[in-house]
Design brief:
This protein is α+β, with helices and mostly antiparallel strands. The protein has 5 helices and 11 strands.
């Protein structure tokens, strides 16, 4: 009987120890956040469509308030939604899993100034890092050329080709993502392109890396072609 009681006590202690270890593990992230200065910001848990308001996104559960280390967030993220901004609407689609940035939302008056899709064209949105979309030079109404960097399937060498010589920018949505504890700037750029170019653009997003070049007046990029290591330093006149 004494051995049975000892065994039961040993089993009970083992279960208690396991429960304590599990509790310690599942609360590790919370303890890590609590040990540093944190702040809250809104994150999209579902995609936000163009024209959707902050208030509607909040009420529908498309965004949630989450905590982050204060060092990785700037003043541009949306930290509060109240009567001063809940009616502001998205000027460009916001994909799931993005920190909301105030510059991506505007009053309804601002939406009236956004470009419309030209007749005979379609709108396609692409996500780019800050350095890939020419920064402040790309804004609604800008004309851009689209380049695709990829690996040539025949030679196996890196190659960059002109994909679309001219496209109208309909909207630019700013977002912040966190990577390795740092805030990384991203942009969702919506372009108006011909229907036959839209499918090429979608494939290029999946298979390569896109870059935008803002076009100045009277610039024709249609003859730029492709560049690889073989002709990188050749003069094009």
């Amino acid at each position: 009987m004494r051995n049975s009681k000892s065994l039961l006590w040993a089993v009970a202690l083992a279960i208690l120890a396991g429960a304590l270890v599990y509790w310690y593990a599942v609360t590790a992230d919370d303890r890590a956040l609590n040990s540093t200065k944190t702040t809250s910001a809104y994150v999209s848990v579902r995609s936000i469509a163009v024209g959707q308001s902050l208030g509607d996104a909040l009420d529908s559960g498309a965004i949630e308030l989450k905590r982050f280390p204060a060092s990785v967030l700037g003043d541009q993220v949306v930290k509060v939604i109240d009567d001063t901004n809940r009616n502001e609407v998205s000027i460009s689609a916001v994909p799931e899993g993005q920190l909301l940035v105030a510059a991506n939302f505007t009053g309804m008056g601002g939406m009236a100034n956004q470009p419309v899709i030209p007749t005979g064209q379609v709108a396609v949105s692409i996500s780019l890092a800050d350095f890939e979309h020419a920064g402040l030079f790309v804004a609604p109404g800008s004309q851009v050329a689209v380049f695709d960097s990829y690996t040539d399937k025949f030679g196996g060498q890196p190659k960059t080709s002109l994909l679309i010589s001219k496209a109208l920018v309909l909207g630019v949505g700013k977002a912040l993502a966190t990577k390795d504890g740092e805030a990384v700037g991203e942009a969702t750029v919506t372009l108006a392109v011909l229907p036959q170019d839209s499918i090429r653009l979608v494939q290029a997003v999946r298979a390569g890396q896109l870059y935008l070049a803002a076009l100045g007046d009277a610039v024709d990029a249609s003859d730029l072609g492709s560049v690889s290591a073989n002709n990188l330093f050749e003069s094009r006149g």
